[in-house]
Amino acid sequence: MTSSSRPLSVFLCHSSQDKVFVRDLYQRLQRDGVAPWLDEEDLIPGQDWDREIRRAVRASDLILVCLSKSSVSKAGYLQKEIKFVLDVAAEQPEGSIYLVPARIEEGVQVSDVAEELGRRHWVDLFQEAGYQRLQRALQARARECGASFGTSPAITRPRWASGAGKDAFGQFAEIEVGNVVQRFRWIAPGRFLMGSPTDEPERYNNEVQHEVMLSSGFWLADTACTQSLWQAVTGAKPSYFKGDARNPVENVSWDEVQAFLSELNRRVSGLQARLPSEAEWEYACRAGTTTPFSFGENITPEQVNYDGNYPYAGGEKGRYREKTVAVGSLPANPWGLYEMHGNVWEWCADRFGDYPTAQQVDPTGPQTGDSRVLRGGSWYDFGRAARCAYRGRFEPAHRGQGFGFRFAPGHQGPAEPA
What we know:
Order of helices and strands: EHEHHEHHEHEHEEEEEEEHHHEEEEEE
Largest sheet: 5 strands, parallel
Number of helices: 10
Distance between the termini: 22 Å
């Protein structure tokens, strides 16, 4: 990895029809220490498009041209942008701008877009190993132009944390209460499509898909709250399933969770723990994916604790455990969060209500309503209930053998050197 104060700058050239994929790519590049440039993120209303695009292209170390079947066949914006980018690149000194064609779906002929791109080797980002290949190109380009790639800021620790560090999933922080440790993951701000597309199997009408922007990052527990942490804070053992303190606490109401968080905040100075909003929960559950599950189009009981007698969308039947399992015992999603699908339902802060259709910024749900949101499905539910978009609800005083939660410390991000 290179070491420099200037991160590698990457211009993302794309079709507006591919904005969801490109937004995810933008966020992934950011997590890799890259400085990506994306029009909808970096253009300010009122700016001259031609002038700002030209300036951004000239300032970039690498141009990543994202190509799909729709973009190649489209005769409007993308074709104009590609030609514009190639013209600007041709004006620059040789070697100052590096072009990389990136196919984001199979069947695209790079040579159909432009002769200049057809002469260059492309990367297939729709393939599992495609992003790793792109990383090698970014690293090589960073070495050429003296920029940094793959470096991150020094590990930092929020004031409320007893420890912090970094692993394969990224940055984490921890608290310790009565010898019980809870880990949290830093979730960066971003945009995503909340809800499910109309063609998603077994969806419900209350999952209207709409764009959401989360303007602030947040910490989120990497597991549901355990029985041991609940007991350390409250002294109580409310769970139906006993025998392993690492199992998630269940049989707790939304109201009781609020009392737990209040006591926890009293014990841990500056923690300001709360339940995540419904939008924060789904954003974290999806972890940059757009499929029904963060694991892909379907799940198995080896990945998720649900009733395997009732698989999702024609999947194969599998094991039904008929109980909860220890947190962190099943695979994590791409952002290092465990059991976001299945095991226990997780209370969210929001009241339940219909989704809007317009874009939302930091939504917190309706101001009135009799029920609170539950997400994720549980050990006793069918596979469909474990989908990222599935929405449950219950009165805040209700307890259930599958009702648990995970919590989020206040919005204070990484601040102090570890």
